[in-house]
Write a structure and sequence with these properties.
Number of helices of chain A: 4
CATH class of the largest domain in chain A: Mainly Beta
Strand content of chain B: under 5%
Largest sheet of chain B: none
Number of domains of chain A: 2
Mean pLDDT of chain B: 89
CATH superfamily of the largest domain in chain A: Nucleic acid-binding proteins
Number of helices of chain B: 8
Number of strands of chain B: 0
Strand order of the largest sheet of chain A: 1-3-4-6-5
Distance between the termini of chain A: 64 Å
Mean pLDDT of chain A: 85
Largest sheet of chain A: 5 strands, mixed, barrel
Helix content of chain A: 25-40%
Structural class of chain B: mainly alpha
Order of helices and strands of chain A: HHHEEEEEEH
Strand content of chain A: 25-35%
Distance between the termini of chain B: 14 Å
Helix content of chain B: over 70%
Oligomer: heterodimer
């Protein structure tokens, strides 16, 4: 139905696509640690040793865990399996709140304490008007 | 099977289309902006800053869609040697690129009040930046070479290389931990965006798609006029 050249070109394009996809897959796979923007408290628990360099951790701010003392804010980051204490002083993003997502950048002091130098709020994919939120909570 | 593409026939349609598309675009955009900026409610958490979404998300969608279309046209055009497909792909690229930049810039503006930062190197944002670079190199390749055969090959390869990035952008938020939130709208499951906010989003997407179509038609007409001036009667 189609000429030999057409088939060859199809095969050529197909091969290029496969080769490039596999290469990209390999590259990303080997860089996985860097592609991941933050680690969860569970990742830290399973890690063999405490990392000295700057890392980012993320999870949910535990309900009723935020403690503001003078210039310092203390809170607990949880992924509902493990948790870690975070101490931070500096600008807090608007959406930082208990029960919401957070990403903290800084250094691990020990297994249970993280000294943050920067915190970012991570919001979820739910969008709704305040009235609907209230109605949902009322249920 | 692609023989019926004669530039004269196409031109008689595409030269008249822009004004109607422009009219429709203005109408839809007006409705979309009214819905998005005035009628739609504020978000329970982000309040008014959620309105940036009505520009950010449609722009990102269109830029991904346009790139996919460019790849499809380039590969089919390359395999079956359809010159017209390359011209369509070439004419599509500028609007896709512009929307890609719009998505990055509005994302940055949205990120500051919500996340607390203008820019982070997380997987979603970085892969979107890479897409912008692919658009750029695609556009540059068209300007760089004079030999048509060469351009067709090079732009096809660029588009195939770039298309691998498209699923990475789409699924980056599911595969890896990112600061960027996961998708709110899924075809298979119920979307996590309230219906009163979904409508303006879809209307704005339609408006942006029309804008893309408008820019495409204008670019494509220029290409057809160039061919006419060269005195060729087939593509």
């Amino acid at each position: 139905m189609y000429g030999r050249k057409v088939k060859l070109r199809f095969f050529f394009v197909f091969l290029i696509f496969i080769i490039l996809s596999l290469s990209v897959f390999l590259i990303i796979k080997s860089l996985e640690d860097n592609v991941i923007y933050f680690k969860s408290p569970s990742d830290l628990k399973t890690a063999a040793e405490i990392e000295k360099k700057k890392i980012r951790i993320g999870g949910m701010v535990k309900i009723e865990s935020i403690l503001i003392k003078e210039k310092e804010v203390k809170f607990i980051v949880t992924d509902y399996k493990n948790e870690i204490n975070v101490i931070y002083s500096g600008v807090i993003p608007n959406l930082f709140a208990e029960g919401k997502g957070v990403v903290a950048e800084g250094f691990l002091k020990d297994e249970n304490l993280f000294l943050a130098t920067k915190i970012l709020a991570k919001h979820d994919e739910n969008y709704m008007p305040p009235e609907v939120k209230k109605a949902l909570e009322g249920k | 099977m692609f023989k019926y593409f004669s530039p004269h026939k196409i031109f008689s349609i595409t030269s008249k289309a822009p004004k109607y598309v422009l009219l429709l675009f203005i109408v839809i955009l007006t409705i979309g902006l009214t819905e998005a900026l005035i009628l739609s409610p504020e978000d329970y958490k982000q309040s008014h800053s959620v309105r940036i979404m009505y520009v950010h998300v449609p722009a990102a969608w269109i830029s991904l869609g346009v790139f996919s279309l460019i790849t499809f046209l380039s590969t089919v055009g390359y395999i079956f040697k359809v010159r017209n497909f390359f011209l369509i792909a070439k004419s599509l690229a500028p609007s896709g690129f512009v929307f890609n930049i719009v998505a990055l810039v509005t994302g940055s503006i949205w990120g500051k009040p919500t996340w607390g930062t203008w820019w982070v190197w997380d997987a979603r944002i970085t892969s979107m930046l890479i897409l912008a670079l692919f658009y750029l190199i695609y556009l540059v390749a068209w300007r760089l070479y004079d030999n048509n055969e060469k351009i067709f090959k090079i732009t096809s390869v660029i588009s195939i290389l770039g298309i691998i990035n498209v699923p990475i952008i789409k699924y980056s938020v599911d595969w890896w931990n990112t600061l960027h939130q996961p998708a709110s709208i899924n075809i298979l499951s119920e979307s996590s965006i309230h219906i009163s906010m979904l409508y303006p989003l879809l209307i704005m997407t339609a408006a942006f798609a029309l804008f893309s179509l408008l820019i495409f038609l204008m670019k494509y007409n220029t290409e057809l006029i160039k061919i006419k001036n060269k005195g060729l009667d087939r593509l």
